[in-house]
Fold this sequence. Notes:
Layout: H1 11-26, H2 32-42, H3 50-57, H4 59-65, E1 83-85, E2 92-94, H5 101-106
Antiparallel strand pairs: 1-2
The protein binds zinc ion (ZN).
Amino acid sequence: MINSHLPTLSAEAYNELRTYATARINEGCQDWREQLLDDWMRDDRRQWGVLRAVRNTYGPSWLATFRFTEGEPTRPAKTKTTRSRCSHCGSAKPIGQSCGCFDNNSQ
Ligand SMILES: [Zn+2]
């Protein structure tokens, strides 16, 4: 379906959709569009403002076909330990990197 009769989505609305989608995905939601549809139906307060204006202008069938130009937001990987202890001095350092103490001592 071509929505050529619809106005171009504003950058503000795009960013709001992006923010909304990212937040839902970070909460573990599998389908942010479904969630937004639900919020639209219930007139949930988190879609008040720009997103409700999007609903009124574009509507659910538009949402089903809407795609972010840079692709869908993805859920960040589960937090991994990114720091470890230096085996030489015991200070915290990023995994896989030297903290520098050993290099400094050997110079
Ligand atoms: Zn060290």
